[in-house]
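Researcher: I'd like a structural prediction for the single chain below. Treat it as a standalone chain; there are no partners to consider.
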Amino acid sequence: MKIAIVSGKDEGPSKLNAFDNALLKAGIGDVNLITVSSMLKKETQVVELPELEKGSMVNCVLSTLTSDKKGEKITSSIAVAIGENLGCVVENSKVNCKSEDVVNEAIEMVKYMMNKREEPIKELIAKEETHIVENIGSVVASVVYLEE
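Model: Treating it as a single chain, here is the predicted structure.
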């Protein structure tokens, strides 16, 4: 299994447009996203996001936050833990928190999930996107499941 970890942020004239613009910045704005829960197959590889076929159906774990409150700090994060037999993904979003706290919370949650499954972590990756809202802003962080 191959996955890509992406993130983006942007503004727009409406909440929907801000979200769509953030998806475009993340490289996943021209596909249909199907949100799935948080499990990965064994031997998962993290790769760069390839060019996706426009209009295709793409599975992902999506962390997103959109706000129309000027000055608000919005953060979305993703944490990925990969073990020998499986992997787990956690998404986390918060308003007006330190970016590192949002990421650390996601990391602690994914560590817990792996520990609960008695699966040692071989690789741990976290990514976040933070934005200070100017008018209407959105942030996204996502794990994109790629076809094999």
